[in-house]
Design brief:
This protein is mostly helical and about 1200 residues long. Among the domains are: about 400 residues, no CATH class; about 160 residues, Serine Threonine Protein Phosphatase 5, Tetratricopeptide repeat; about 150 residues, no CATH class; about 120 residues, Methane Monooxygenase Hydroxylase, Chain G, domain 1, CATH 1.20.58.740. The protein has 48 helices and eight strands. Strands 1-2-7-6-5-4 form a six-stranded antiparallel beta barrel. Helix 35 packs antiparallel against helix 36. The longest helix is centred in the middle third of the chain and has 41 residues.
Length: about 1200
């Protein structure tokens, strides 16, 4: 009985309207009614012979041979004929309203049972021989039983389904672990059967969802709908224990038969121990997914309470998914290609295999339209996908998790809460792990991800898929042809319908050419359509992401309510917080984040000890998440994040009148945020910080505490770190500014030891790159002092440094590493001082690096001081090898000190005062620094470097160097230009300091004060005659001592001393005398240097030589008594000067050779002439200085000299 014998005209492959497809039962009944009316018109009476459907069932059961084989080949036709006859009979005998148990005789029901049993047996026995026939037979039987559910007693039909199940299953006992050894192909047939049976319009009612509620009438009721509406929802059932509702127990499967079968199949196939079931994962998940999609879109179940009863049918799904959690695709691992379970006609992930079909084909199998959220499932098994164990594909995992979230969303909250109460801690943690995975799975990926996926998918060939669709459509197309022709719908579906054309080419060969050509036409239109679809897909995905995360959030809140009164709440709440933080880290909508922040605030408020005592690492994560959202471009997100961050600070403060932990974590989070985030917005973060500051100022409860001030300090510190970190990118080419910014950032992390240590080491690396070894060594010493400070809190070991005070001999600056602030967090807290350097070995490593850097800088005395700290550690550890190495290095260092004792070989640096003037410099405007430059750097060199650098930055014509060292009046400068004043400065020591600064190293280490001199005359000229020459001596004090962790240090104090001409002369003569003494006593002697100094002292011919100075200031006794002492002091200086010249000549005579004897005699003649000329001037004493000291009757005026001191701070 092929196509020719079919009395209906429509092609079985042509698509009918989806709505009409849903009304299949009603239309089929009406066609039978029309046929019956036609017979009655012809005969005038109803047939009186045997009932056709009873006779057909009997003959089919007893048939054999070729007759039976022919019937099996066209089983779909005979099943349809039987159903039509049954409905025809019930209609004319007016039994449609009668009880179903009384509608049919027992012999007919026995025949149906036998028929189903034999056909099920045929399916099992023939599937390996003739799979195409078995597939058609299996599908036809499923549709037959689906139809019987509308007209026969449901219990009887369920028994038929059970008969089929027993025939096709090696383990008929439902309570056993089903189908562990089942053939995958047979299992696939059973899934097809189950999907078709479960597509019944009253599937929910058939499952007895335990409710007294009656849903609205079906939108398209069949003839049997009237009797089927009240049979399930009105059924009273006994109360069940909550636990049984979540398990696939025998009572559950008996109560909810079809749902039990579906979930049992799901559990069996997803079981990792099931043999060869891997290829069926997608198919069985698709069955569940399609069912839930149909429930969700069915208006009969739109009511919340009704939907909760429907969800109760699937409560065991939660446990099933929890069991399969280790097999699910790890969405947290990477962001590889992924698929969505929505969108008609989309492509599967390649990992699913190539044997996939579209929704069009799936509906050809099921006979009903697929809901919008459904996905196609495998029909023919991929022989390669029969792994015994393996993880699910991303697509299958995603579909399964969608099913899970649907159940969690719609299930009754009280039911879930009671079940969560009975779960063990490990089960709850697994549930949280599952929710964590859901967050990653449904993270919004954006349009770009869809475009990438589409471009890859578009390139794949679809030939095999098209052939597969044709084969499947053709195999069951006759039934559809019959249905369509019975409705008289011969036209083809419009191309713009939801599911496209289902026209089958087997019956429309003339369309083959058109179909192939149409795929090649209008590619540009297809591309446009694809872009529109992508945008729509991205929109849908965004909505799905929000919905999924809100469901997860609701579930988390139920868990919190459940475990808040239990003893094991700590471990569970930690997991809840982990999921919450993970959701904050993913791309989320503003709507979700608002709810998420509200939940987070409630959680922290109710369980503050969770963050501040137990889950301290998650406190750091939370601060990072909140700070990231504080920089969001969306105002509502910033507001909520700011509120959450403020309440976190407040909660921490209320615990101990300080929020040191949150301060530290927020500061560390800011470092991470500005260092790693690509789309970080500085301006939005500043706004959020201002909002937090406003909260603190307006908080009436804490106004009288230190909290507002602490918040203000924190916000200011964050502002500074933020500004400096952003500026670092602008100043990569300015080494001084870059180090300054790094220094300020490190200072901002004063209460975050791990971060401060990191930045100190970064600075050390930058200094090493520029060969600033002394500064690199200082950074390492500061790092070691910081580590020692926190180690002393952790461990009381006598041989370890007691803190940074131990390093004071190395550098006076190191005391700034003291951990004395109220904001210091104890190092034994989790996550604090956790780096490798905060150990004894780390401290030793830092000190060894510091010693090496000092050695490269030539500061061997500092190497000794470093090893003084290090030696006790190795002595305590009895490490003789390390001690031997250290003492070897010390011997080497002291040897170099001995050989370079003169100081000429050890040039530690040259210092310059640099002032910046002009608005172009920004923060540097009117700032003055002392720069430390490499040894023997000329003033012209640093001037050229700075002028060139700022010239490139601002423009060559915009930068000027001020040549003199006079005070700068900014009002007289061009406001549109940048001015730099550079002055050479020397270390300055008071007289009392000189007794401790003996060696050349002493005079070049720990320098805080510097001096430069500016000559001037009273009439404004810089230089004049000796008696007119004044000198301004400017003493500068820096904020830290050189060498420091940076090469330029701010000037914090300035003092000016004006010297009179005679005082200038005294200083000049003292300087010449010191030079003579140094050259004379130098060891080993340097004849060239000695002769150079002698030539400048006794061989000079210039006007302002020593003789000229003496003649100007010593020729006459000053008239002003206040100058007597200066006059006498200068006289004594010349006496000392002549003595030193004589000593130098004697020394030079012992050093010269025969060729220089004439030169020696010339020097001696010059000396004698100078001595004779000076003799009367030197020997003239001022009588008044040698009078007896009179008793002072007035005020003391010992300091009332002509020296004017001017202080400028």
């Amino acid at each position: 009985m092929g196509c020719k014998s079919a009395p209906w005209g429509s092609s079985p492959g042509s698509a009918s309207d989806p709505l009409q497809a849903m009304e299949r039962s009603g239309n089929r009944m009406s066609s039978h009614t029309e046929t019956a009316s036609f017979l009655q018109t012809l005969t005038g009476r109803l047939p009186t012979k045997k009932l056709f459907h009873e006779e057909l069932a009997l003959q089919w059961v007893v048939s054999s041979g070729s007759v039976r084989e022919g019937a099996l080949q066209q089983a779909w036709f005979f099943f349809e004929l039987m159903v039509k006859s049954i409905i025809h009979h019930l209609y004319f005998t007016e039994r449609l309203e009668s009880p179903r148990k009384n509608r049919f005789p027992e012999r007919f029901m026995d025949d149906i049972t036998a028929l189903v049993s034999t056909i099920a047996g045929d399916i099992v026995s023939r599937f390996q021989k003739d799979l195409e026939l078995v597939e058609r037979l299996n599908t036809s039987l499923a549709f037959f039983l689906n139809d019987l559910l509308s007209v026969m007693d449901r219990g009887f039909v369920f028994s038929l389904i059970k008969t089929y199940w027993k025939q096709s299953s090696p383990h008929p006992q439902v309570s056993t672990k089903l189908y562990a050894l089942q053939n995958p192909t047979l299992e696939s047939l059973r899934l097809d059967f189950l999907r078709i049976v479960c597509s019944h319009e009253h599937y929910v009612t058939l499952n007895l969802p335990c409710s007294l509620l009656t849903p609205p009438a079906s939108p398209s009721p069949s003839v049997s709908s009237a009797t089927s509406q009240s049979s399930g929802f009105s059924t009273h059932v006994q109360d069940q224990k909550i636990a049984n509702m979540f398990e696939l127990s025998v009572p559950f499967r008996e109560q909810h038969y079809l749902a039990g079968l579906v979930l049992t199949e799901l559990a069996v196939i997803l079981d990792p121990e099931a043999e060869g079931m891997f290829g069926l994962h997608k198919k069985v998940i698709s069955v569940v997914h399609n069912l839930l999609s149909s429930h969700d879109s069915d208006p009969r179940y739109a009511d919340t309470e009704v939907k909760a009863r429907v969800a109760m049918l699937y409560l065991p799904l939660i446990g099933i998914v929890m069991e399969t959690l280790p097999q699910l695709h790890d969405f947290t691992e990477s962001h590889n290609q992924w698929g969505r379970p929505g969108g008609a006609g989309g492509e599967e992930h390649e990992g699913e295999g190539n044997s996939i079909i579209s929704q069009t084909v799936a509906m050809a199998i099921a006979g009903t339209p697929v809901p919008q959220m459904s996905r196609p499932s495998s029909f023919l098994l991929n022989p390669q996908s029969t792994r015994q164990h393996g993880s699910f594909s991303a697509e299958s995992s995603r579909s399964l998790l969608i099913c899970l979230l649907w159940v969690l969303k719609n299930a009754d909250e009280m039911v879930l809460q009671k079940w969560f109460t009975d779960l063990s801690v490990s089960q709850l943690n697994r549930l949280l792990d599952m929710l964590y995975l859901c967050v990653s799975c449904f993270e919004y990926k954006g349009k770009k991800a869809f475009e990438r996926m589409n471009s890859l998918t578009f390139k794949k060939s679809k030939d095999m898929k098209a052939k597969l669709e044709e084969a499947i459509l053709g195999s069951i197309g006759a039934r559809q042809e019959m249905v369509r022709r019975s409705r008289g719908q011969l036209e083809r579906s419009p191309s713009g319908s939801a599911f496209g054309s289902q026209e089958n080419l087997r019956w429309r060969k003339d369309m083959t050419h058109w179909r192939q050509n149409s795929e090649k036409m209008d590619k540009s239109q297809k591309a446009v359509r694809t872009r529109a679809e992508l945008e729509h897909e991205a929109l849908i995905d965004g909505n799905l992401a929000t919905e999924a995360n809100l469901i997860i959030l609701d579930t988390l809140e139920i868990i919190v309510q459940t475990v808040s009164v239990t003893e094991s709440k700590e471990s569970i709440l930690g997991g809840v917080l982990k999921v919450l933080l993970h959701s904050m880290a993913c791309n989320q909508s503003a709507l979700y984040l608002q709810h998420c922040f509200a939940t987070q605030r409630a959680l922290v408020s109710k369980f503050p000890e969770l963050l501040f005592e137990e889950e301290t690492e998650q406190c750091a994560d939370l601060c990072l998440r909140l700070l990231r959202n504080c920089s969001s471009s969306i105002g509502t997100i910033r507001s909520h994040a700011s509120a959450s961050l403020y309440l976190l600070m407040r909660q921490n403060f209320e615990i101990g009148n300080n929020f040191a932990r949150v301060k530290m974590q927020v500061t560390m989070s800011l470092s991470s945020l500005v260092g790693t985030s690509q789309n970080f917005n500085e301006e939005f973060l500043r706004r959020s910080l201002k909002t937090i500051l406003t909260y603190a100022e307006e908080d009436l409860e804490l106004r009288e505490t230190t909290f507002p001030d602490q918040v203000q300090d924190l916000v200011f510190n964050l502002h500074m770190i933020l500004s400096d970190t952003v500026k670092m990118k602008e100043h990569q080419e300015d080494p001084e500014m870059l180090i300054d910014l790094m220094y300020r950032i490190a200072k901002g992390y004063q209460t975050s030891p791990d971060l401060r240590l990191t930045w100190l080491q970064n600075m050390a690396g930058k200094h090493s790159e520029r060969n600033n070894h002394a500064e690199a060594a200082q950074c390492l010493v500061h790092s070691a002092a910081l580590v020692a400070e926190y180690l002393s809190m952790l461990e009381d070991r006598k041989y370890l440094p007691v803190g940074c005070v131990t390093f004071q001999n190395i550098s006076s600056n190191v005391l700034e590493e003291s951990a004395v602030s109220d904001d210091v967090v104890s190092p034994d807290e989790e996550g604090i001082c956790s780096g490798k350097y905060f150990t004894e070995a780390g401290l030793v490593g830092l000190l060894e690096q510091a010693a090496a850097s000092f050695s490269m800088a030539g500061m061997y005395e500092a190497v000794n001081e470093v090893y003084k700290v290090l030696i006790p550690v190795h002595e305590a550890n009895r490490d003789a090898k390390k001690l031997a190495t250290i003492h070897g290095k010390l011997q080497e260092a002291f040897g170099k000190i001995v050989h370079q004792s003169t100081g000429w070989e050890r040039m530690f640096g040259t210092y310059f005062r640099v002032g910046f003037y002009g608005s172009k410099f920004g923060d540097l405007d009117e700032q003055e620094f002392v720069y430390k430059e490499p040894a023997i750097t000329k003033l012209a060199e640093i001037s050229h470097r700075l002028e060139g650098f700022y010239g490139e930055r601002f423009g060559e014509d915009q930068v000027e160097v001020i040549k003199d060292s006079n005070p700068v009046d900014k009002c007289k400068l061009d406001p549109n230009k940048a001015f730099v004043q550079i002055t050479y400065v020397e270390p300055y020591f008071d007289t009392y300091e000189m007794k401790d600064r003996i060696t050349y190293f002493d005079k070049n280490y720990n320098l805080r004060r510097f001096v430069y001199c500016t000559p001037f005359t009273l009439d404004g000229r810089a230089h004049g005659d000796l008696h007119e020459q004044f000198k301004r001596k400017t003493i500068l004090t820096t904020s830290h001592a050189f060498p420091y962790i940076k090469t330029r240090i701010n000037i914090i104090h300035k003092e000016e001393i004006i010297s009179m001409p005679i005082e200038v002369a005294i200083e000049d003569m003292q300087k010449k005398t010191q030079e003579l003494a140094f050259a004379t006593h130098q060891d080993p002697a340097d004849a060239k240097m000695l002769q150079m100094v002698l030539q400048g002292s006794v061989g000079t011919t210039v006007n302002q030589g020593p003789l000229e100075v003496a003649q100007v200031f010593l020729s006459e006794i000053p008239s002003d008594p206040k100058l007597y002492r200066h006059h006498n002091k200068l006289r004594l200086c010349f006496k000392d000067f002549t003595k030193r010249c004589e000593d130098a000549l004697r020394k030079n005579k012992s050093l010269i050779g025969p060729d220089q004897k004439e030169y020696q005699r010339e020097l001696e003649r010059n000396y004698h002439r100078l001595k004779e000329a000076l003799q009367p001037l030197i020997n003239r004493k001022i009588p008044q200085l040698y009078k007896p000291v009179l008793q002072v009757t007035s005020h003391r005026d010992s300091f009332s000299r002509m020296s004017l001191r001017k202080l400028d701070i």
